[in-house]
Amino acid sequence: MSDTSAIDHGREAGFGDFVQLLKPRVMSLVVFTAMVGLIVAPVPVHPFVAFTAILFIALGGGASGALNMWYDADIDRIMRRTKGRPVPTGKVSEGEALGLGLALSGISVMMLGLAANWFAGGFLAFTIFFYVVIYTMWLKRSTPQNIVIGGAAGAFPPMIGWAVSTGGVSVESVLMFAIIFMWTPPHFWALALFMKDDYSNAGVPMLTVTHGRKAARRHIFVYTLLLAPVALALALSSVGGPVVLFAAVVLNALFIRGGWQLLRRDEGAAEADGYKAEKAFFRFSLAYLFLHFGALLVEASLKAYGLGGW
């Protein structure tokens, strides 16, 4: 990869440019789901330990983002969605992105192990490796199943949060993982539907490119159907309760309805109206995940007062 210096654009990289390297929007999802996993776990954690653990999990997520931007700089320059990132614009050099990513990876893993336990630290290290090596370097450019398998990296944070509390894995943490894992493909395929030729221009074999948009719509609908029983299973588990069950029923009914609407959409009509339904489904998919995990937090709060749970 060619290195593009920040001074090519007439100024030195600023603090905000390095923050953007960490993918703060993605980091917010990592922090929130990891925090939920930690809070709903059955073993209490000292508030200071919990705070430091979430901080280092966030740094680990940011490290993954920086390393992803370093490796994907070539295709990021081509795609409209990513060409404004710090590395493609030359605000941050590829070497700086690599150095920051490696440094934060080491710091986050070591400090999480010291602050919480080494199982959680090792889990964070594996998550960073999975996202950077398995997904970014291998799957993303080689198979239309890239986002299906690679989505596991984004689904690990609640399991890491649970591991901070318990030092291990349980059915409940696996179900939290499974919700994000099953949610990821329809979320990203909906994005691919209205990003038009970004992925094909960049040579990324997204499902919309390799199998066509109609096939992507079918897959989105199937995944909304498969996601519903996972959400219901979590609602009926020890971390669930009436609030989580209500959220699961309502949110999944709406998600399935949205998937069905996308399935029935004609491509010509979708393009003519600016992919409004696809964009609405994508936005709702973000709310879907935050509301699901928010319901777990509400349930945990009610349980603390002897009101929630089964």
SSE arrangement:
Layout: H1 15-21, H2 24-40, H3 47-71, H4 73-76, H5 94-115, H6 118-138, H7 146-150, H8 152-155, H9 157-166, H10 171-194, H11 198-202, H12 207-210, H13 213-235, H14 242-263, H15 267-272, H16 276-304
Helix pairs in contact: 2-3, 2-9, 2-16, 3-5, 3-6, 3-9, 5-6, 6-9, 9-10, 10-13, 10-16, 13-14, 14-16
Question: How would you describe what is shown here?
Answer:
The protein is mainly alpha-helical and 310 residues long. It has 2 domains: 14-167, UbiA prenyltransferase (Tetracycline Repressor, domain 2, Orthogonal Bundle), CATH 1.10.357; 170-310. The protein is 74% helix and 0% strand. Helix 10 runs antiparallel to helix 13. The model is unreliable at 1-10 (pLDDT under 50). Pfam families: UbiA. One of its GO terms (molecular function) is protoheme IX farnesyltransferase activity. It catalyses: heme b + (2E,6E)-farnesyl diphosphate + H2O = Fe(II)-heme o + diphosphate. It is found in: Cell membrane.
